[in-house]
């Protein structure tokens, strides 16, 4: 007997992406993911799940989502800059090492087998979600808006390593960048979040080029999905400035657990 999950997967995998129902789903999910990724992070796991249910192998899903990510984070970077929270000079200091690392991470994701990538993500994503629940409001974590923070050589190495992860999978890299700025550069969360937007805007086109070279981008789906990402990025930028992330953290963690469970079950069959 076919389950509801199987029915949904059958619908998604057999219906053309140009069908108005799929278009609505892509834009709606793109908006939700764009909003959550701007405010908190980790929501790209939802994208991987959706694209895989549409019949894409995880490496193509990984490459396809980068188009929307790029347009979303460019948009949110502009908003954070206009609001006075983005220091572009510091943004380049963070973004350049992240971009260098992302090239290697994307190459790794492009050449590894689909099975290996699925297993890695099934293990890594739940671990990464723990970062969502770090209590940054405690006194020992209080930071300020530091102008021109000191950037040391080991910061460069740390952000390069973060870039390798981001090139491999976008899900969770925003949190790593944000917490890197928070703990290593001494910035508060809102300025760290602004730097996250800018750094992702720098590294994503570099990773995207790798996926394009390896033919791992579904452009039709990517462009429709990107519309939702931009909508979510705009609303998420203003929401993150005002605050309020608690329910989003729980929601994203639930999605990650569901996706990881799906990947584990698939690879145990």
Uncertain runs with pLDDT below 50, 5 residues or more?
A: none
Helix content: over 70%
- Overall structural domain count: 1
Structural class: mainly alpha
- Counted by DSSP, the helix tally is 11
The helix/strand order is HHHHHHHHHHH
What radius of gyration results from the CA coordinates? 18 Å
Q: Beta-strand level of the residues, as a percent range?
A: under 5%
**Global morphology:** globular
Average pLDDT value?
Answer: 84
Counting DSSP E segments of at least 2 residues, the number of strands comes to 0
Largest sheet: none
Task: Compute the separation of the termini in Å.
Answer: 18 Å
Structure at a glance:
The protein has 269 residues and is mainly alpha-helical.
């Amino acid at each position: 007997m076919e389950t509801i999950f199987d029915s949904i997967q059958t619908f998604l995998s057999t219906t053309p992406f140009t069908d108005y129902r799929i278009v609505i789903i892509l834009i709606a999910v793109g908006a939700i993911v764009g909003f959550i990724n701007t405010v908190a992070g980790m929501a790209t796991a939802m994208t991987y799940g959706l694209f895989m249910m549409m019949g894409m192998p995880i490496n193509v899903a990984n490459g396809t989502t980068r188009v929307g990510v790029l347009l979303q984070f460019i948009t949110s970077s502009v908003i954070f800059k206009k609001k006075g929270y983005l220091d572009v000079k510091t943004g380049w200091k963070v973004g350049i090492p992240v971009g260098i690392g992302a090239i290697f991470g994307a190459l790794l994701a492009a050449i590894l087998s689909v099975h290996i990538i699925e297993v890695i993500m099934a293990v890594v994503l739940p671990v990464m979600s723990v970062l969502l629940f770090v209590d940054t409001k405690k006194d020992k974590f209080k930071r300020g808006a530091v102008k021109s923070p000191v950037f040391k050589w080991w910061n460069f190495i740390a952000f390069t390593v973060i870039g390798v992860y981001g090139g491999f999978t976008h899900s969770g890299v925003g949190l790593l960048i944000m917490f890197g700025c928070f703990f290593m550069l001494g910035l508060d969360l809102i300025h760290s979040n602004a730097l996250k937007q800018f750094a992702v805007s720098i590294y994503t086109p570099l990773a995207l080029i790798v996926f394009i070279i390896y033919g791992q981008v579904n452009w039709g789906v990517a462009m429709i999905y990107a519309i939702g990402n931009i909508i979510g990025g705009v609303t998420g930028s203003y929401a993150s400035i005002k605050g309020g992330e608690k329910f989003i953290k729980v929601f994203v963690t639930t999605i990650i657990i569901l996706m990881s469970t799906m990947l584990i079950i698939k690879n145990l069959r």
